[in-house]
Amino acid sequence: MIDFYYAPTPNGWKVAIMLEECGVEYNTVLMQLSAGDQFKPAFLAISPNAKMPAIVDHDAEGDPVSVFESGAILYYLAQKTGQFMPEDQLETLQWLFWQAANQGPMAGQLSHFVNYAPDGQDYSLKRYAGEYDRNLAVLERRLEGRDYMLGDYSIVDMMAFPWAFIAKPLTASLDKVPNVAAWRGRIKERPAVRNAINLYKDNQNRGEQNAQNNKLLYNQTAEHLLGVKS
Question: What is the pLDDT of residues 7-30, one digit of tens each?
């Protein structure tokens, strides 16, 4: 059994998709991020960065294995199950790191300023909208002549899909990136992907918790972590 520490966000969906695609048995631990579940000592022992997703694999040989960071989890699960791992390991790592260092952070910042920040953030909105758009162009070029990023559907696609899936709510258009639009459409029709996106869908934060009313989620400092007693 795998314990899956999760909230219904694009980052959470990455791992939910992989678990559903692989058909492994898992137990979802729904995290109440607005209440500070991510800062509890027991969770910090699993995810030192105080971020979900994270897993604990109780079926691993020997002691249970904990893994945090979505890219590392996808890589671990692909190795564990023998599924959705491309043959070219170096290329796989490059695109996982691209998503973790570029597409994901830029999309996350854009989401913050579109959905949760106070009004009047024009420069921030323009900057992160431009970076999100630039990363769509990277993905568009990569998908030229390919159905999926590394040829066959893999963990790399699962990693990149969620932040492209929500392009419209981020005020972005896919009109200029037809390869991305087609790739997004192929992936979203997969039953495992639909199951993952629907997982605790009613618990999504649709702006009710924002930078003005929740200091646990937003405006974090070192004190959020240094004040936690282990």
Answer: 999 999 999 999 999 999 999 999
Q: DSSP alpha helices (H): ranges in 49-176?
A: 70-81, 89-98, 104-111, 122-142, 155-165
Euclidean distance between CA atoms 123 and 101, whole angstroms: 21
Phi, psi for 135 (deg, rounded to 5): -70, -30
**CATH number, domain containing residue 23:** 3.40.30.10
CATH code, domain carrying 175: 1.20.1050.10
CA 85 to chain centre: 18
Average pLDDT, the chain: 95
Q: What is the domain extent for residue 21? A: 2-83+195-226
Q: Are residues 16 and 77 in the same domain?
A: yes
Determine how β-strand 2-6 pairs with β-strand 54-57. Answer: antiparallel
Report the half-sphere exposure of 149 (CA within 13 A, side-chain side): 27
Q: Enumerate the β-bridge partners of residue 5.
A: 29, 54
**Host H or E run for residue 66:** strand 65-68
The predicted model scores a pTM of 0.95
- Could you tell me which residues are beta bridge partners of residue 27? 3
